Target: DUF58 domain-containing protein
Amino acid sequence: MKKVFKLFYTDLFFTNRLFTGLGSCVVLFLFAFFFPWLGIIPQLAFFTLLLLVIADVVMLYQVSKGIFAKRHAPERLSNSDDNELGIYLENWYPFNINVGIIDEIPFQFQKRDIWFKTTLKPQQRKLINYILRPTRRGEYEFGAIRVYVMSALGLIRRRYNFSQGETLAVYPSFLQMRKYELMAISNNLSEIGIKKIRRLGHSLEFEQVKNYVPGDDYRTINWKATARQGNLMTNSYTDEKSQHVYCVIDKSRAMKMPFEGLTLLDYAINASLVLSNIALLKEDKAGLITVAEKIGAVVAADRRPTQINKILEVLYKEKTRYLETNMELLYATIRNVIKQRSLVVFFTNYESLSALERQLPFLKRIAKFHLLLVVFFENTELKKVSEQPAADVEGIYIQTIAKKFEYDKKLIVKELAKYNIQSILTTPQNLTINTINRYLELKARQKI
Model:
């Protein structure tokens, strides 16, 4: 009995309407002291309010379970994307109710205003959807769902607690990967900024010898086969396949820099996932290497159907390290792991020309054996500072330093080009599009 009573008063909450009614009663009692003609009106008002409160309690507590609530969430969340979740409600009361819902979302979101209001008719079911955008990979713990029910009287609220604690993993942006995948399958990549690049010359991969049909290129006629068959025969070519594409991700402290809630490492991880998936759709082989002061993960290039899931699982666990990149170890790993000429996309960040010069000898060695594409980031905050008008001498000094660092980035591109090393200097938000564009360009020009 004591436990039941405790549950009763811990789940009972007074509303503003009740406090307004009590305040009105207090005012009537005060006025009755100065105006005797009010008589028993204050007492009648108070007892009427008391009866209404009792009636409201009876209405809300006449059934043990008047409402049902359940959280609808995906098996995993996609980092940096809008993930849709829902709260399913069922009203088991025989009358209309007003409902307020609190969903205890993970602390990582730093939101304390997840409060939903709705109304439900008897036996009505409803699904309330809302959006969460995580900015870090890892495990997110959801708590209980708190539902506050109020009748038409609106004097008290009854709270229902639905213990639905669950842990959801936030993976690299697989929603973005699927979007690009659908665009690639339907040949609509141009809608999201992917350029159409004209293929130069013939593909180098021979497919078959077939009968000549009007419209075939005369240069592809196979004269030996024509002599044997007595009919015109032509060589048929197809796009080159099974080329190796490796994404190499720098996990050192240079990639910890934040931008719009995400670190540069997370941007590189998301872009690597999309690029690997596009490469697999183009029937190339995708691989992955992560590196900091030591080698992290190594996924050999392959094009099996399970390859993208394997890469996704590896990327999910990667974290920023706080030491310098061991380029000598990276070079040795690439030489041991990658046995044929491949496209190596190196995601890193250089803030100064001296930072590049420390790594340049090893980049030149890698470029001797593979087509190396170095992807690094523009410092958008410095760019904003350099574009702002200076108000004083200190402002001129800060603007000059910002422009110096911005100019260093352009010098890095030129320095890499001197040694036939491809490069992309991009803002974080355009990283994925620019990387895919360059991959398709290199493939069309048969540089891999």
Observations:
- The mean pLDDT is 87.
- The longest strand covers residues 83-91.
